[in-house]
Amino acid sequence: MKAFLMIILPPLVLLPLLGIDDEEPDIGRTAYMMGIMAAYWTSEALPIAVTSLLPVVMLPLMGVLPAEHVCQQYFKDNNFLFFGGLVVAASLEAVHMHQRIALRVLLLFGTRPHQLLFGFMVGTAFLSMWMNNTATTAMMMPIAEAVLGQLESIAESDGASTTNARLIKYLGKALMLGVAWAANIGGMATLTGTGPNIVLAGGYDALFPESEPLSFATWIGFAAPISALLVLAAWAMLMLAYVPRSTRQACGRSCSSRSLCLICAPPHLRRSSLCATALTVPDLDRRCYVHIQRARTHA
Question: Topology in the membrane (predicted)?
Fold first, then answer.
């Protein structure tokens, strides 16, 4: 009943919008349609995809635009470019490629707090170059939470003090913010990284039809270096704000590469100890052992 009311009420409540401008009736009609779509999207009274197709029906019905002109807007080059980016993102998620990339990056950069933070931010930014920012964040957050859970369990088993527990909590804040920031920054690097980039490219082509269009190579050529610098700046800010210098030494023993493999590996790899061992980097194990001994000596 509630869903039915949410479908019926917006068109009735928004009827006064049709008369807001007698000289230009198309303005009121367009505002009426936009109000209905906003209400349906907000309440989800109709599926989002169905609501997005309302202009195909309403604009010709109200005499604002012919149907052929409205339908052409759904099949522009930039729209299909964005659609292709979504297909790539779905493919990466289906084969657990995001988990594999995150695992490799973490193993590459190391297991100290500043290395973990940098590894997560680099991995998230790289994924966000090819996927939607929100989807990348949603994929990386569970991995970050799993690593934090491993840190907390190791701290509890070692009888860590309240100070160390608080430091791990600060590291958790840095990881959560780092993943979110890196997803936004990485989306700037490529034309398909986020929706506004494609909208800008379409607007540029419309405003300057005689100029050379913004290609993928042109965009990544100027945006990727800026994105890399912003990732470094964001990492430095989070390090200064949430990861004190003492934490970088005290938490060196937190995770071994084998633990990271078991945490971040896809489920079908987790079931195979052979695969998990193959993903382990022996040299990183030795470095972690050295960090453990140094941390214990320092303590």
Answer: Multi-pass membrane protein
* Angstrom distance (rounded) from CA 7 to CA 70: 23
* Interatomic CA distance for residues 133 and 183, integer angstroms: 5
- Does the reported pTM lie above 0.85? no
- Separation CA 165–CA 147 (nearest Å): 14
Contact 243, 234 (CB under 8 A): no
Residue type, 129: M
In degrees and rounded to multiples of 5, residue 11 shows phi and psi of -60, -35
At 232, list the tokens: 């470094």
Is the Cβ–Cβ distance between 103 and 260 less than 8 Å? yes
**Which of the pair, 36 or 164, is modelled with greater confidence?**
36
Mean pLDDT of 268-296: 41
Helix 133-157 / helix 77-94 crossing angle, nearest 10 deg: 30
Q: What is the mean pLDDT of residues 206-212?
A: 85
DSSP string for residues in 136-164: HHHHHHHHHHHHHHHHHHHHHHTT--HHH
Q: CA–CA separation, 243 vs 136, rounded Å?
A: 24
